[in-house]
Please model this.
Amino acid sequence: MFSSIRRSISRKFMVAVMATTFTAVFVSGLANLAYDIEDFRTGVLEELTSQADILAQVSIAALEFEDKPSAEATLGRLQARPSVQSAAIYRADGSLFVTYTGREQSQLLAPPGRPSAQAHIIDGNVMHIFRPIKRGSEKLGTIYLRSAYPLDARIERGLKMFGAALALSLLVAGLVAAWLQSAVTRPVKAMTGAVRELIAQRDFSKRVNKTTDDETGMLVDAFNTMLSEIGQHAAKLEQSNASLTHEVEERTRVERAMSDLNLSLEERIAARSLELQRANEQLHHAQKMEAIGQLTGGVAHDFNNVLQVIAGNLQLLAMTLPDNAEAQRRLSTAKFATERGAKLSSQLLAFARRQPLQPAPTNLGRVLRDMDDMLRRALGESVEVETAVTGGLWNTLVDPNQLENVVLNLAINARDAMKGHGKLTLELGNAMLDDHYAAVEPEVVAGQYVLLAISDTGCGMAPEVLARAFEPFFTTKREGEGTGLGLSMAFGFVKQSSGHIKIYSEVGSGTTIKIYLPRSHSAEEQAFDMTAGEVVGGSETVLVVEDDLAVQATAVDMLSQLGYRVLKADNGDAAAIILNEHKDIDMLFTDVVMPGSVRSPELARLAKSLHPGISVLFTSGYTRNAIVHGGRLDPGVELISKPYRGEDLARKIRHVFANTRQVERMRQDSADVAGRVAVDAQSLRLLVVEDDPDNRSLLQEILTMLGHRVTAVGSGEDGLQAFHPGLFDALVTDLNLPGISGLALADALCKAQPGLRVVIASGVGRAEGGPGAHGYASLTKPYRVDELEEILRGVAA
Model:
């Protein structure tokens, strides 16, 4: 009976373990197999769809110009993908344009005669993909891909792996169950033998209810017999001793826990209170800085409008009194005051994080080298300047012009703190702010930064001064020695540049300001100086949209003095009516922030839809988020900030006109050249450098139609990388590039390849030492293709 009961428990134990293991592995295996099949289908579909979309984008030009060799070459690149069995490009009417069949594929796998309306079709072990080829909303054709889809092999492999995993799991479960069975039943059998001996002595009197007839039931019978022999007094004594011991131990444990809690509770309360106090101070400081920023941003906006009226009228008045020396002297003094006001407004906007930045990849080592002479003149001979730059310095994404202002202001603050005598140290290096630092400092994101540290040997700052150092107009200097905006401007600029600024100072030991700017992995760019070039006007029609009537009148007078025909509107709604009624408007010159239902970006889009060739120039003293996002101008937006000078406005308008008209001229010439290709023209290898994407694309297209081999890039730095001596016959470049200028690029390439012919185009006149001064051919935007073609024929000759 005993052996049969033991075997019954063992069998139950073994069956339970094996059944549980089998069910878990079987269900999870089937689920994993189903997920793997779906993931495989989705992966193959997404990969082929992405490949088809890429081929569709690349094939747009070939399909538009019926360039079958180019399209076949594009599909020929699919040889690198053996899984693709065949491919095709269809025209918009569904007719077959070009086809492709893999090297090892049969002609039976040729593409279908017409594209299917379905995006993809799975046919057994083959997947068919159909994707539209579009330019904007216009459908130009369809791309087709046929690829192997080895689902059967995938399922077979999954089933084999599932079967192997199931078998291995059951084997391991069986071994574990056997081990556990042995470990559990061995002590039970030992206890049963001991209980049998006690039953034979009959020393027990107390009974325990029996619930089963297996080993547990036998154990209960043995204990019942044993307990029946135990005396009542011994049982009570043992119970009393156990209860007393437990009570003493429990009381001791509770007393020890209470003591530990009392010791740590005070520490936790103090630490939590300090943490809450620090968080409350940071929140209060952030709210205060945000409120001050909103106030200063609004003040700067109105201040810039006032300055624009004053500065504009001073310039107009100077033009009306050219022979009055006394008036010119007074006007010059007034102009200087407006420039100081403009600088003050710029500092307010910088603190408020409302200044439109134009960040570019920048090497701060070069910035400090370029500022060396200026810093020494500003600080004087009694201040020693030392610059230390770490090797392998990273580039950073920052507005270099605004950064120069920050460095200069901080250096002047340091000079004043040192009373004109001491040492100023500027250090540059790479830095890493980790997660721990970011958790402690508000608004800091962990990552890689470029560190600029500016240290002085001045008097230092007391803690109460240090706490208010970034507040605008807070200063410890005497009246008339400073505005108190230097540090606040630096604070706003660094925060708007996604950076971090920290001050370390001690009374009598000097001050160190550390500025962390985010690392950039791009090559350095240098902005073109728009203050260079001729100041000329024109006869075009300009629509001025400005809600401040004084600013509007000043802008109208400036433009009229330059010869432009001027229309004016007080808001976007009135401007929309004028755009609809007049058909000869050449430029929309609009303020960014205006009242009314039509905002400035919407007005610009309306102007371009009604007048496709119109140029758009924005102006503002406070851009908000209309054309600036993340503190940066939106791509392709042209902006002149208030207050602006008349000559700056004149150059900016001619620059915008030149780019707009060059695009239109290129589009017209592209249509003309498409119908004629000179059969006797000699093919040239041309490097084209143009930052405007529309101009670059059209120029490359036209020159290719003329039979030349063209490599087109968007910056001087890219031109330097693409150029190799002997690889090109001529360089065609814009003068005003975002990085190094076209003139500097031409000089560098001609030094590397003497005899290289150069054509330089400009839309803002010729800068000093510009095209022609180095023997380079010159073109003025907008130029005709015939002019460029004539110059290139001279190169070929």
User: Anything to note?
Assistant: The chain has a mean pLDDT of 76. Residues 233-350 form one domain.
